Amino acid sequence: MIVMGVESSCDETGVGIVRWNGDGTCELLADEVASSVDQHARYGGVVPEVASRAHLEAIVPTMRRALTAAGIGKPDALAVTIGPGLAGALLVGVAAAKAYAAAWDIPFYAVNHLGGHVAVDTLEHGPMPPCVALLVSGGHTHLLHVEDLAKPITELGTTVDDAAGEAFDKVARLLGLGFPGGPALDAAAQHGDRNAIPFPRGMTGPKDARHDFSFSGLKTAVARYVESKERAGENYSVPDIAASFQEAVADVLTMKAVRAARDVGVATLVLGGGATANSRIRSLAEERCAEAGLTLRVPKPRLCTDNGVMIASLGAHVIAGGAAPSLLTVASDPGLSVATSQVFT
Ligand code: ATP
Ligand code: MG
Ligand code: FE
């Protein structure tokens, strides 16, 4: 069975094609991504209308490139991200997927973007055992309990305000490092002292929800720190701020992820989302998983950011799990909860 996955929830137009191996894994046949990230740089963040227009221009050529790369005329089934994501952006991928599925007369599956971030790891690291997944990107920060990729996923926690990647982007902007700020901030942090400034660890108090996150207080703390230094006419070190901020984010994310894995009794932690490219999040996750006796699985960076392969992989899992195809009338859902890895109407 060959499955095509279409992704358009944010600023990446992704079309991936995989072959289901029948053992809980897939083989990659095509991975085509067109990103509009450069068009958003001057605004300092993803502009939904700009992203939607870019998807419109990119979707058909990206689809064609994927078919050529895979050397096929059409897949056996088509999966598409139905949510969560930007409303106008989602519409483009969903409309295209429905049109192609109808024209090709193949089954169509509307799947949850978040489950895709977990499913994609099966391409590199084998079938997925019950796990906790930590997803961190510009748009999401989630702790998920995944028992079976073909079944609804339980959300253990999420951010109550900013996403972790968004905090990286905002702090990087404040420090004059450009957009997307995550990679630039990570690079600046390499030359700084991560213990220089004790920035707050949000939602780690005894009364806070065990698995939720908050990053807006941290972002404000960085802004206050810079303001106070400027007001006093004192010098401050951008690398030290970057390293200390990054440490605060990585500390909370990895501490809560390991705690969540312990709470639900799984032996595996999976990372996903573009911000898991962060060097400190990776190294601290490795350290803490080793201490806690957990297996850490991290897809390669290309598959951590949004792409079509993750949707194809999740599609293959739900099809193999016996799911009925979605109807062509299914509507995209920008606020889709993670508890539905598959959507019907
Ligand atoms: P979505 O939220 O729908 O997954 P997105 O476009 O917001 O999509 P990705 O494309 O997965 O997210 O990842 C981009 C985010 O990852 C940006 O916020 C970027 O700053 C952040 N990022 C990338 N590399 C790093 C890094 N080395 N350190 C920290 N953050 C990073
Ligand atoms: Mg992106
Ligand atoms: Fe994503």
UniProtKB/TrEMBL annotation:
Its main location: cytoplasm. Binds 1 Fe(2+) ion per subunit. Its EC number is 2.3.1.234. Its cofactor is Fe(2+). Substrate binds at residues 135-139, 169, 182, 186, 278. It catalyses: L-threonylcarbamoyladenylate + adenosine(37) in tRNA = N(6)-L-threonylcarbamoyladenosine(37) in tRNA + AMP + H(+). The keyword Transferase applies. Residues 27-312 form the Gcp-like domain. Keywords: Acyltransferase, Cytoplasm, Iron, Metal-binding, Transferase, tRNA processing. Belongs to the KAE1 / TsaD family. Required for the formation of a threonylcarbamoyl group on adenosine at position 37 (t(6)A37) in tRNAs that read codons beginning with adenine. Is involved in the transfer of the threonylcarbamoyl moiety of threonylcarbamoyl-AMP (TC-AMP) to the N6 group of A37, together with TsaE and TsaB. TsaD likely plays a direct catalytic role in this reaction. This is tRNA N6-adenosine threonylcarbamoyltransferase. It comes from Rhodococcus tibetensis.
